[in-house]
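>> Question from a student workshop board

For tomorrow's exercise we were told to take the sequence and the ligand below, predict the bound structure, and bring the output to class. My setup keeps failing. Could a helper post the expected result so I can at least see what it should look like? The ligand is 2-aminohexanedioic acid.
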Amino acid sequence: MPETFTIKNLIAGKRVDSVSGKTLESFNPADTSDVVGIAPASGKIDIDNAVKAAKKAFQNWRLVPPPKRGEILFRAAELIKKHKDELGRLVTREMGKILKEGLGDVEEAVDMAYYMAGEGRRLCGETVASELLNKDCKSVRVPVGVFALITPWNFPIAIPAWKIFPALISGNTVVFKPSSYTPVCASKLVDLITEAGVPEGVLNIVHGSGEGAGEYLVGHPGVDGVSFTGSTAVGEKLIKMRSSAGKEISCEMGGKNPIIIMDDARIDLAVEGALWGAFGTAGQRCTAASRFIVHEKVHDEFLEKFIARAKKLTVGNGLSPLTDMGPLINETQILRVLDYIEIGKKEGAALRLGGSRLSSGAFKKGFFVEPTVFSEVKQKMRIAREEIFGPVACVIKATELEDAIAIANDSEYGLSSAIYTRDANHAAIAERDLEAGIVYINAPTIGAEIQLPFGGDKKSGIGRKEAGGRGGALDMFTKWKVIYRDFSGVLQKAQIDS
Ligand code: UN1
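>> Workshop helper replied:
Here is what the output should look like for this input. Compare the format with yours to find the bug.
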């Protein structure tokens, strides 16, 4: 058996157990007899300590010149890159996604670290002319303060990195509460960022459950900003908590992402995209494609080819190079997915592939489910409306582009979307009319790049977006401050003196 890692919290630069001494365990979802980690199950006092440390460290960190903070991030990027293979394997072992994707998860963190390191020299505001003589006006970005970062298990390295690096470059200090299903990945990431030279107390990690630690952290009066990624149900609860305290929160939540396949599409390309979008990460991405809205003229051809290819996917332990799709994260997710499959059948959708749990032989100790395809799905069905977060593809027939776009937009969610077409006008109309934070043309709904903002509309996202570019995470992690400097030596009155 591979090593079981016993990990600790990191508070004020010290590695500590939870005050209560309680722990929680993380398991390999492909084989639950493999205990990956034993982590502190933190409670209120641990969170109080971490917030206190972050508050104290903020006083110095906010004054460190951003290019200097950038140098630390650059070193973090180099360190993560150096350990990419080991971390990628750990992602697969603790979360289940196949190794290629585990390595991709780590690469996203490397990319984000380099990108945000550069932002240290680009934290610019505006200088604007004053209406008065001998006076100048400028706006500058300033840090928010102590940020609570709450992250899910599906991207156990990438999503923490999306939040930690922009938070740090902006001059915030951090209390990070990762998913209790992937504490070791989070801990290893924090170790490397610490090794890169982040001062004590600037980056604190507190392990524990959502109910036991996460919620208390979000409601903590010492926390100035919160960034959460996870389910819409939890997000909505946190939004209520924050708004009753009159404070802001940014949440990345669920999706029910559509791919439109037009009659002029390259069908083989669309099939490849559909496979990757639906079954990559076993459908456990908020960007996963779950609705395939197919023009009636190519519906049967697409469906037949899609099922034929999906049938050939090898399900298994993600560490094997032969595996195309790994396990789900836990028993709760398996039950949720199986429940939706039953709902789909009862609603009258046609189960065309899969639909069952795999539990014999090599699958016995893991959380495996077959790649599943439903056809004859109608947009009013629950399987077409609710997020399943598993490898379940719903194929819906459409008559023309307007119809397809209307079906795509008939959703509470609006994170990612896609269209396969060779008609430039169809692509342009979809680009304009799809109600989603992200639109892909001739590519599936997953695979956002870090140099652009990431986030959704409707129930998919609240507050600021993540990642790079204009409107990205720097807007989440900084506030604008405006400075008027009068060097006339006399009292000048704006709007009155001329
Ligand atoms: C998520 O699904 O929670 O675009 C994040 C993507 C990845 C990130 C997904 N870069 O699919």
